[in-house]
Amino acid sequence: MFALATLALSFAVSVSSFAVPRATPPAEWNTAVLENYDAYHNRYMALACNTKHNTAFFDQCCHPLLASQSLASRPAQCTPGASSDDDDDDNLPFCDELDGDEDTSSSAVVHPSTSKAPVVVATHSTVAAHTTPAATHVATSAKAAATPATNSASSSSLNTGGFATFFFQNGVAGACGTVHKDTDMIAAIDGDRYGNLGARSSLCGKQVKLTNTKNNKSVVVTIADACPTCVNSNSIDLSQGAFQKIATLDEGMVPSKTALIWQSVPDSEGAYTSVDVQGVDWKQGDAHQPQTFAHLFPEVDGVVHTLGTLMEDNSYKRAVREGNLPALVGSLWKRAIGDSGNPLEKGQRSDSNGRPTSYEAMNRDSALRVCEAFLSSPVGVSTENQPRPFVFISAEDIFRPVIPARYIETKRAAERGIEEMMAGKVDYRGVYMRPSLVYHAHTRPLTTPPAVLLDLSAAIHSKVPPSFPTPSSVLRSLGALSKPSSTTTTGSPLESIANALTIPPIHVDHVADAVCVALDSRNDVRGVVGVQRMRELIGWSTNGQTNLQSA
């Protein structure tokens, strides 16, 4: 939904290093992919490759062969003893073929910056090997000067001159502190961009979309490591699994373009990922700064606003995704003893980067700012889906008193504000999706056990005659007797508990399906959409039937 303008940058390549060739294979030499090391080393020395860096001869003859290749696939001058007219550049710096510079060809890849601007790059090159303290990186040791990306929040940068390669994990933690598998969708960013290799970078957890420009295959990866041996500040190393999404390992390096997605995800070992989505055009912007994305609205058929937070301390999100029950309990306890409800603090919380994280900013203000920009945008060529919908992901009131009342209060305030904006605008409609407990066995493993219990409770309550007392009816009666607080507009917490006992949980995929139905204006979905209505929209449940989806 978010996009920024693109700025082209250029890079000048410069190489200057000194090292001594060695006769023993480095630890990172991959015998399954590359030729026998002794054969390569002998040929390298016989051809005097150590004196021919940055020449056409080096590019043609001095890289290691793949295990499946033979010298017959290269020009005759690449065979030791053959004459060559290209051996005319002996005054270049003496470089080590074993220190990762088996490839000095011109190339380019993307490298994200610490700014909010997306980074896009094209690359071109071949394969080489290099070792870092944490992992075996496929890259080159030549460092090229790269023009830094712009730090403007309203523009993006086109960066060229880097390498897109792959590396192996070797069972050790990356610079961001987590051990990953070769199949995980991760990447190592250039060491100059990463910063202090002995500390966790602000880039850790950021996502990068990389596209192979030869076949247009794309992959979204999470930054989890640093690459101190990448060719320049715009180079990036992919995990083996990520590289295979866009190319074969035999290719080693491929022309590519990349974009930094303004989104952070936990740096964990979880193999399940949902960010590698084909057919999605990723954009970026700031929900509180409509000018960063408003130019996209004239061409869209509708908007879905999902931004929000259940707790102002966002550490709970990582705990839920990782299935870390102690960490989740710790977040809840911290909230219980630390949230004083001081009105002077409301709306003023922010993260380490200065971005607001309060309920008011995340749940209410962001939705209102995005909706304002959407309603004020002119309708472009795409006018078939009329009236255009603004779908706001709200929530059922089921979390109090575990979660502060301000959570649901700010959700309701956003609903009211959007509805007021929609008044009199016949070309627009507001839709307010109110899911209950949203569960997913893989991405939110801790949600499955309570989802099972709440689903059972809802099923039992639905079978009990209305005149028969139930736990929920008792709680509602007690809640009606209690005097509402002067600081809340949501009633007694007992009513919220009663809602949790009677409203079944809903799978995240069902929420998404219902949103898709609501977006289609032919269905004329408007106003509040609760769980039962969501199920009706997707044709999943009838006669009060409930069923938990397993995946």
3D structure, described in words:
With 551 residues, the protein is of the alpha/beta class. It has helices spanning 37-46, 56-61, 191-194, 240-246, 315-322, 325-338, 359-376, 405-422, 448-463, 471-481, 493-502, 508-519, 531-538, and strands at residues 5-8, 11-12, 119-123, 130-131, 136-137, 145-146, 155-162, 164-168, 186-190, 206-212, 218-227, 236-239, 256-264, 303-305, 388-393, 428-433, 438-439, 506-507, 527-529. It folds into three domains: 5-11 and 103-264, Barwin-like endoglucanases; 18-78, no CATH class; 290-538, Rossmann fold, CATH 3.40.50. The protein has 13 helices and 19 strands. The strands form five sheets. It has an eight-stranded mixed beta sheet with strand order 4-5-8-12-9-11-10-13. Strands 14-15-16-19 form a four-stranded parallel beta sheet, with helices on both faces. Strands 1-7-3 form a three-stranded parallel beta sheet, with no helix packed on it. The longest helix is centred in the C-terminal third of the chain and has 18 residues, at 359-376.
> Strand fraction band?
15-25%
Which structural category do the helix and sheet elements fall into?
alpha/beta
Task: Assign an overall shape.
Answer: elongated
> What separation lies between the terminal Cα atoms?
27 Å
Can you count the beta strands? Answer: 19
Number of helices: 13
- Count structural domains: 3
Q: Which whole number gives the mean pLDDT?
A: 72
**CATH class designation of the largest domain:** Alpha Beta
Widest sheet: strand order? 4-5-8-12-9-11-10-13
The name of the CATH topology of the largest domain is Rossmann fold
Q: Whole-number radius of gyration?
A: 28 Å
Q: Give the biggest beta sheet.
A: 8 strands, mixed
Q: Which percent range fits the helix content?
A: 25-40%
Uncertain segments: 1-23, 83-134, 138-157, 262-276, 544-551
Per CATH, which architecture of the largest domain?
A: 3-Layer(aba) Sandwich
Keywords: Signal
Pfam families: DPBB_1
Biased composition (Acidic residues): 84-104
Signal peptide: 1-17
